[in-house]
């Protein structure tokens, strides 16, 4: 393919001043996996000194295209160019040599290595540990994303792991930075610091390719956007001239429905209580829980905000039964002591759980969707005389989830690991909600999903609460909590603040508590009366 291909316009928008050639171009990109076409003749140009958004629904082909640009996949057809010259990106090392860095949505980290060791894997050979630690600290100061070089990755929260991905990418001094949902596990303050750095990188003449389902971020940062749907480019625009609603409509091909507040809950009985739940830190770098107390009644959603690493993972483990409490009465599900019970026993009491990490924790990637249903429901679903969930029952339930939550997939019952991150998230959340639990504990419900899917999940949580269930939603997305929660508490350093009705607090007040500040005292676990739950 000749070098003239790079001159084809892909957006119809004026290019930034400077070199008229794109820094990197992708032309006629096709990627097939068997009979499934993930990218269908995609054209994309990325220019120096711009932040370019790549938008699309979950499963639209964005991640596949990014993996091609980073050398993780080779295209079935098409060409990649660098400053007009066709190049072959055989592997990520080849991409990095050309100045391409990537911040992954799904962390590409070695669990048993330290922070510094994970970063060293992509740095030049011969770099001393002291020099590497100095560089990590310097970038941490710049970004506000501080890291402890000697901490093992397995001990870190999702937010802390994301910091590693960002820092190790920027330590390579890239010409092009590909960012796949970089703020999905960052707090608003951390995200603001990141935006400042991205704008500085743009002003220095670097190119940034930005993937995010947070459309307000796209409108703030990006001057150009290319939109994918079903693997094809369906449009382009200047996001600054669009609304979040119009961008979402271009992505999905229709207007995204607004969330409808539920009417009065059917039941107001107490369904979940934590009574002075205290647990020691499970590891050197983990967080101890100190006298956690909360009450959630049927019909309520309690939102728990907090900066990553303040005990969210430990609280989820204590709620799910992965870590038993020292006292049976520290956790009560529908009035029954459950602190000493494991996950299956708590499920039999009517509880359900959606952990933060979908790959490996919420789902087994190598197993099919129906097999993942068996893993989560075998203790509560109808059993055969051999003790296994009927295959037909599991497949039928998986099909219900796929239809209800619009899970995009290839094949009738694919392996969980073949789904895009957002589609796997929709499946995991839907699997638990459609089990109709009396208590649902969900950690980062809409992490990495598009606007339409986020609206669907949030509506499903509201509807579940309206049916009489109690929902505890742990989230770093304050917009999400203020949209769905009846009351909000903050987890900081293993301590839970008193829950306050959403209407009686603000993002600023919650943010102050997230940072360890003081707030006006309130009664612990304020329970809204049923008639006010989800009132508009």
From TrEMBL:
InterPro entries: AAA+_ATPase, ABC_carbohydrate_import_ATPase, ABC_transporter-like_ATP-bd, ABC_transporter-like_CS, P-loop_NTPase. It comes from Methylobacterium komagatae. PANTHER family: CARBOHYDRATE TRANSPORT ATP-BINDING PROTEIN MG119-RELATED, GUANOSINE IMPORT ATP-BINDING PROTEIN NUPO. Keywords: ATP-binding, Nucleotide-binding. One of its GO terms (molecular function) is ATP binding. It holds the Pfam family ABC_tran. This is ABC transporter ATP-binding protein. Residues 24-255, 272-518 form the ABC transporter domain. Belongs to the ABC transporter superfamily. It comes from the Bacteria.
